Amino acid sequence: MNANLKEVIKEVANAPLRSSIITAAAVIDATLETLIKKYLVDDSDFLKKSGIFSHSGCLGTFSAKAQMAYALGLISKELYRDIDSYRDMRNKCAHEYVLDESDMQSIGAKSKAFNLVNACFTFKEPENAVHHSPASEIKQYTVLEFAIILVALTKRINGVQHCSTFPFEAHDDYLKFNEEDFSLLGGLL
């Protein structure tokens, strides 16, 4: 794992729960954008001018990026669901002035239902376990899930290739019309 990833994971692990979730979600959002850009046609001028990743662009939100990554087949349905749960937890942390017991229960339930963490780890409480605060327990799940999501997305980024741009349509026989084409065009005029 590269040093930057280790630093980000360390920062997320050491921050208070609310900050940890918000920071992790921001990094997941940026990593999804990198993944999608790596897959799209290799035309950075177009991507900048089109504004599709700007705040008001079609891929300007965390949710839109996660949905598009799944729709393009860049991530699994399970990873999509985990990212969407992370997004939902981030929204609670970012938009609620105070996280009340109901919010903490909701965040806790989502964190314990993460597909990736539960597929990679088996959690079994020892008989003499010291019980930590709910926030501490939630943080264990969210930090582990964040690390797994980051590794999964990084592997996808390293394995994906740009789509090729379709060649200009006015070439060779591509636009050579046949009788069926003329009939269709005649019906439009």
Describe, in plain words, how this protein is organized in 3D.
With 189 residues, this protein is an all-alpha fold. The protein has a single domain, classed as Four Helix Bundle (Hemerythrin (Met), subunit A). Helices cover 66% and strands 0% of the residues. The longest helix has 26 residues, at 134-159. The radius of gyration is 22 Å and the shape is elongated. The N and C termini lie far apart (61 Å).
- Say what the CATH topology is: Four Helix Bundle (Hemerythrin (Met), subunit A)
What would you give as the CATH superfamily?
Nucleotidyltransferases  domain 2
Summed over residues and divided by their number, the pLDDT gives a mean of 88
Question: Strand-residue fraction?
Answer: under 5%
Give the SSE map.
Layout: H1 3-14, H2 17-39, H3 44-50, H4 62-71, H5 77-95, H6 101-112, H7 115-120, H8 134-159, H9 179-188
Helix pairs in contact: 1-2, 1-8, 2-4, 2-5, 2-8, 4-5, 5-6, 6-8
Précis, in short:
This protein is mainly alpha-helical and 189 residues long. Helices cover 66% and strands 0% of the residues.
Notable traits:
189 residues, mainly alpha, Four Helix Bundle (Hemerythrin (Met), subunit A), elongated
